[in-house]
Amino acid sequence: MAHYRSEYRRLVREALAAHPRFAGFTIMKVWPGSVDDETLPVIGVLTPQEPSARDTQKTVTRRTLLQIAVRRIGDEEIEDTLDDDSAEIEAAVLAALRNPEHRCVLEDTSVISHTSSRKNVGTLVMSFRVQSWRSEPSLP
Question: What is the pLDDT of residues 18-38, one digit of tens each?
Answer without folding.
Answer: 999 999 999 998 877 788 888
